[in-house]
Amino acid sequence: MIINYHGHACFTLKTSSNITLIFDPFGDIGYNLGQISADYAIISHSHYDHNNVSAVSNLKGIILNGDFALDDLTVKSVKTYHDTKQGALRGENFIHIVNVDGLKIVHLGDFGEDVALANLSFLDNTDILFIPVGGTYTIDALSAKKIVDLFNIKMVIPMHFKTPSSTVDVDDLDKFTDLFSDGLIFNTDNGFNINDLPKGKKIVIFDYKNF
């Protein structure tokens, strides 16, 4: 499987059977999504920085809520909230669990609940977890670290953090990565093949500028 990071919470995944998924394509938040094509768009919620499906060409389908079997993959949606007030501040957020290529892949979207109160047992034995770390609108770095520590997750990919390009008011990635030893962190360019993750590494950081 090949992963590309486009900024914010947006990733494309290309499976072994050449199916391309895009998660949470963004609108005008400072990044350039460019010309992008995918088979399926998986959207966590309807905010403009996560649901710009009009920017994606050749789509066969758009997934927000529900359980689906599509080509060689399955998608399960889990309803959560965008805040600690059961959605009163920012509404619902759907976590998506994708099973493909023998992998369990979870994208948390803009998950913003209190980690101590949320039922996240489904995260155990996840192969790849896309997790927001920037706070303000989602869980922050400390809450994200709690999730990483609580569950058996092989590969953690942080998202939804501040960069020089981003206009969204969230924290820098360093607040999250500083909570881990250097030995757990692997830096990569886009076009990352998950089979190339060095042994002993767990946190994968993308240089989105190289895309």
Relevant terms:
mainly beta, Metallo-beta-lactamase, Chain A, 211 residues, 6-stranded mixed sheet, globular
What is the CATH topology? Metallo-beta-lactamase, Chain A
CATH-level-4 superfamily name: Ribonuclease Z/Hydroxyacylglutathione hydrolase-like
Rounded to the nearest angstrom, the radius of gyration is 16 Å
How much strand?
35-45%
The run of helices and strands is EEEEEEEEEEEEHEHEEE
Unreliable parts = none
The tally of domains stands at 1
In CATH, the architecture is 4-Layer Sandwich
Query: What structural class is derived from the secondary structure elements?
Result: mainly beta
Main sheet: strand order: 7-5-3-2-1-15
pLDDT average, as an integer? 94
Helical element count? 2
Q: Kindly, what is the distance between the CA atoms of the first and last residues, rounded to a whole number of angstroms? A: 17 Å
Number of extended strands: 16
Helix content: under 10%
Give the C-level CATH assignment: Alpha Beta
CA-based shape: globular
State the major sheet.
6 strands, mixed
Please explain how this structure is put together:
With 211 residues, this protein is mainly β. The protein has one domain: Metallo-beta-lactamase, Chain A. The chain contains 2 helices and 16 strands. It has a 6-stranded mixed beta sheet, with no helix packed on it. The model has no long low-confidence stretch (mean pLDDT 94).
